[in-house]
Amino acid sequence: MVFGYIAFVRNRDKDKESNVKHDATVLTEIGYIKANTDEIKAEQKEQRKTNTEFVTRLTDVEASAKQAHKRLDHIEKRMDQAE
Length: 83
Fold this sequence. Notes:
Structural class: mainly alpha
Distance between the termini: 120 Å
Helix content: over 70%
Mean pLDDT: 88
Number of helices: 1
Number of domains: 1
Strand content: under 5%
Shape: rod-shaped
Order of helices and strands: H
Oligomer: single chain
Number of strands: 0
């Protein structure tokens, strides 16, 4: 009977130790996932900023091209009238 109780206590302690190790592993993995998520969010924020800059530059280029086409059309009309 005594040996049975000792075996029970010993197994119970091993189970607790196993559970603690498992919990620590899970917490470590959660921390790793959180760190990666934070890194991805930072990268997305930087990419969003870059995209906004490109959109602004593209808008400026489109406006400039539109003005250039108007000037070319005006020059073309003047040349047609001169002929």
